[in-house]
UniProtKB/TrEMBL annotation:
This is Carboxypeptidase D. Belongs to the peptidase M14 family. Pfam families: Peptidase_M14. It comes from Micractinium conductrix. InterPro entries: Carb-bd-like_fold, Peptidase_M14, Peptidase_M14_domain. GO terms for biological process: peptide metabolic process; protein processing. The active site is at 244 (proton donor/acceptor). Residues 1-272 form the Peptidase M14 domain. One of its GO terms (molecular function) is carbohydrate binding. Transmembrane segments: none annotated.
Length: 354
């Protein structure tokens, strides 16, 4: 499928499935090819008290499997959301965003890099080399488009689709020393948990002989700097993993890819958004939504409420936690003991302040 055919297909889908989808242009490639994302929800284009989740594919031009996989996933949701429980939950309870290609120029040229010869997964601000994580404005147009789009709203989680192995890769990707070595985030248990949720439902990843349980810490595999998943986690407050979905680049058969990944894609999305901690922070008496910050003992990661609705989502592995909820201005705070169950149902915490 050419870039022109992909865009035409996305536009056609947004018309055929208009009740649950909206097409958004977020920027353009080096050569001016539009970069589109599909929003899928029962109220597309409307901000709601629901989590945002995203899948991005074809960041590398020679890794095209995710292009077709995301289009097929969208078609499956459109065809099944009224009758299939998992599809219904995705459409009714969250906003699912799908970006089939981040690097259309590289895809056309059959090159790993973009048209300027840049590896887009080395082009993001990095927590080691750029601790502020702010854009330098020297990033490639594809990178800038994704960064601006991501920072335009709040996200709970995401995944980035690649080819070259069978594994789920989680942060951090880099080390201060430059040597390959496990570099855990303070949410390592959660990243391992959600990575296993994906891996164990994909037979090729689950049965990997190279990676235990089909998962790996990025830096423990090989060090990179400027990766998208680390930027998402540190700068955008979004739990992202990298999915290596086929061992041979440009060799993934679509039907097999879809069959192997559908259950994983659904489970990963719902586990990250609903299987951890979620809830509301409101004003006592009036139920007015409050702008608040949520932290968990042992981690510096800060989850935020949507100030318009007061809702929040915080991925967590099953276990017992001490959670601190504080108003943004610091005028009130409270501490809570929370248990996230093994069932995947998640924990719900509703907090009120004067």
């Amino acid at each position: 499928m050419t870039n022109e055919e992909l865009i035409a297909h996305m536009k056609d889908f947004a018309q055929r499935c208009s009740s649950i989808s909206k097409l958004h242009r977020i920027g353009a490639s080096v050569r001016g090819v539009p970069l589109y994302v599909l929003e899928i929800s029962d109220r597309p284009g409307v901000e709601e008290a629901e989590p945002n989740f995203k899948y991005i594919a074809n960041m590398h031009g020679t890794e095209p499997g995710g292009r077709q996989l995301l289009l097929t996933f969208a078609e499956w949701l459109c065809a099944n959301w009224k009758s299939e429980a998992r599809a219904k939950r995705v459409v009714q309870d969250m906003h699912m965003w799908l970006m089939p290609t981040m690097n259309p120029d590289g895809y056309k040229d059959k090159t790993y890099e973009n048209a300027a010869g840049v590896n887009l997964n080395r082009d993001f601000p990095d927590p080691i080399n750029s601790p502020s994580m702010d854009a330098s404005r020297g990033e490639q147009p594809e990178t800038r488009a994704v960064m601006d789009w991501v920072l335009s709203r709040q996200w709970v989680a995401s995944a980035n689709m690649h080819e070259g192995a069978f594994v789920v890769n989680y942060p951090f990707d880099g080390t201060a020393s430059g040597w390959d070595a496990y570099n855990a985030t303070q949410d390592d248990a959660t990243f391992r948990h959600v990575s296993k949720v994906y891996a164990k439902r994909n037979p090729r990843i689950r049965n990997s002989t190279e990676f235990k349980d089909g998962i790996t810490n990025g830096a423990g595999w090989y060090v990179i700097y400027g990766g998208m998943q680390d930027w998402n986690y540190v700068r955008a407050g979004c739990f992202e993993v990298t999915l290596e979905l086929w061992d041979v680049k440009m060799g993934a058969p679509l039907q097999t890819l879809f069959n192997h990944n559908l259950d994983s894609m659904l489970a990963y999305a719902t586990t990250t958004t609903f299987g951890g901690l979620r809830g509301f922070v409101r004003q006592r008496g009036s139920s007015k939504p409050l702008d608040a910050r949520i932290t968990v003992s042992g981690s510096k990661f800060v989850a935020r409420t949507n100030p318009r609705f007061g809702n929040f989502y915080r991925p967590l592995a099953p276990g017992n936690y001490t959670v601190r909820v504080a108003k943004k201005d610091g005028s009130a705070a409270s501490t809570h003991k929370v248990t996230v169950p093994e069932s995947g149902a998640g924990a719900v915490l509703s907090v009120t302040f004067p």
